[in-house]
Amino acid sequence: AALHFASAVNTPTVAIFGITDPILYGPVAEKSRVVASKRDCVPCKKPSCIYLHNDCMKDISVDEVFSVLKEVLS
Length: 74
Known about the structure:
Helix content is 36%, strand content 14%. The longest helix is centred in the C-terminal third of the chain and has 12 residues, at 62-73. The protein has helices spanning 2-8, 22-25, 55-58, 62-73, and strands at residues 13-17, 32-36. It has a two-stranded parallel ribbon with strand order 1-2.
């Protein structure tokens, strides 16, 4: 919910998405960015994942998020 409130008032945001579709649920603020898993199965619409332990989130590196964060805040 915090992402959507911030986005609604045009606050710069960086959203991290694993299996969820960022096009449907991502931020709409002018200066917002999305970092998302690059797996072929994303966005997933299945009731259970074929991968274990949130692997799609583990694919997103801290460096990748930090790089996008620097862009948004500059």
